[in-house]
Amino acid sequence: MCGIVGIISQDRDVGYDLYEALLTLQHRGQDAAGIATYDGILHLKKGIGLVQRVFNRKNLSRLRGTVGIGQTRYPTIGRGSPEDSQPFYVNYPYGVAMVHNGNVINFLALKEELQRVHRRKLNSTSDVEAILNVFADELVHKGSSVFSLDDLFDAVGGVFRRVQGTYSVVAMLGDGSLLAFRDPLGIRPLVMGRKDAVTAFASETVTFDFLGFESLGDVVPGEAVHVSADGKETRRQIAEPDHHPCIFEWVYFARPDSVIEGIGVLEARRRLGEALARRCREAGIEPEVVVPVPDTGRPAALALTEATGWRLSEGLIRNRYIQRTFIMPTQDKRRSSVRQKFNPVRSELAGKKLLLVDDTIVRGNTSLELIKLVRQSGPSQVYYAVYGSPLRSPCIYGIDMATRDEFIAKDHSEEEIERKIGADRLIYQRYEDMVEAVAGERKMKFCTACFSGKYPTPVTDADLDQIAAERSAARSHKKK
After folding, report:
1. Which domains does the chain have, with CATH numbers?
2. If 431 and its partner were Cys, which of 1, 130, 389, 407 is the partner (CB 3.0–4.6 Å)?
3. Of the ranges 257-271, 413-427, 457-471, which one carries the lowest mean pLDDT score?
4. Residue 105 and residue 122: Cα distance in Å, rounded?
5. pTM value?
6. Which long-range contacts (C-beta less than 8 Å, at least 24 apart) are formed by 149-152?
7. pLDDT the model gives residue 145
8. Which residues is 198 bridged to in the sheet?
9. pLDDT tops 90 at residue 186
10. Is 246 annotated as catalytic?
């Protein structure tokens, strides 16, 4: 899961806008960041770390050009080294720079094919480099000295045929134009916006809110959108959509002030809280105080207290200078960051029957550390309510949450998990209630693979074993 952006203007440099856009998408990736712009020459800056760490006044000043792309990286495969940072660039044919959000399932097979058959040497373990080289290879086969729109859209069709997985992509082309496309499944989001003569693409609408753009809605799954240097927009449906947006966007990943697929993230989390309130009533608990686990748990906790009449308290204070623990690269970092990230308010918790409201439980280690931390303030009971249903299966589409054997809910009952994390009661959301709450009044066919084990693409045990091996190797590299 990454954050991507592309901006094209006819009359001004876009480098600083790209920087500000990446700040709004920092929650989607904390490992690396990068920006490429074009003014007849490609200007590129990327590196390891948060957006504000990678960029400064000096390197932003050289990111000149009226078109550019950027990414904030959350690694799913690969070492997470500087070589894996995006954007990536190939100078043949025509010059193409690219960023993506998603995961290529057949990355290793593509890498071998590109090197053996097409003599294209990939220099990283980042899967966008495979997408970029497949796209470039498709353009090469057109054989023309100047590409046409038909060539571009045909090349996107070639990517759809050859690249398995899910990906939203923004590419900057050597003629100063911008191309965005989204695979037919549309698991990863991509939205389009405009302000006067400036057009932009981004992972979430919050970017447009910040920059003052009007949101024009989603890039349709299987669609490609080209914006020329003079601002002419051309859209083409390349492949039949089989839309399966990732439900985890609303449960955890996206910012609450974003709108994805026409569903407000804040409103979805409030509905999840209302559904969780019914589960808590059924469980027969009577907490004296409800405490959200900041920040994701806050909208659901508020809706839960409104539905039950229980008292809401900010009994956990978050240190906002600590990054999101879920997308930290190793379990050791996630566990140690819990105590750095949260501080309980003793006066609010001491002697109370306390209900913590959180989004999900993955391995259970973070929940265990959080409950230990809260118990130091002396509550009489600690209940733990989760507005996502049990996570049991690995995501192969861009979220490195866990491998098959790491999910605590895979082989343990609710009662066993309750004991393992040290809660007096554990209340999970029902799967059906979660799906219904996120959809609201819309009819949606979500990707819920991490909750249900039902993947929208063919997945074998060998695929899952390979992904587990890749992620294990990547974590070992990061520990070193």
Report:
1. 3-243 (3.60.20.10), 259-479 (3.40.50.2020)
2. 389
3. 457-471
4. 16
5. 0.93
6. 149/226, 149/234, 149/236, 152/179, 152/224, 152/226
7. 73
8. 195
9. yes
10. no
